[in-house]
Fold this protein.
Amino acid sequence: MVDLQPYLWMVILGFIIAFVLAFSVGANDVANSFGTAVGSGVVTLKQACILASIFETLGSMLLGAKVGETIRKGIIDVNLYNETVPVLMAGEVSAMVVSSWFISPLLSGLMSGLLFLLIRYLILNK
């Protein structure tokens, strides 16, 4: 059995990054779901926060296992890393760091730029 104590920092860092990413995704989902309802006055901001807290928590509790199963079985074969668990841990933490701090802002910037060019070409130049 591999001694994983020296790699505890990776577990903690991975937990923190995963928590921040999940919080960000949940906040984005809530903004998309309740933004128009709050803006039109159908629900108050307080009501939207309460409803969002309830249903985001229920969604993660009821469907979170399916997401974990997809990652565990559908994306990578974790059995390939039975002898090198630290390599798997380092790879997963690295993937979260890269996706949260590099790929996500890069894709957002590219999409914003493309949207701006399309609006300028199709709407503003007419």
Remarks:
- Residues 17 and 96 are 7 Å apart (CA to CA).
- The helical segments are 8-40, 45-75, 85-124.
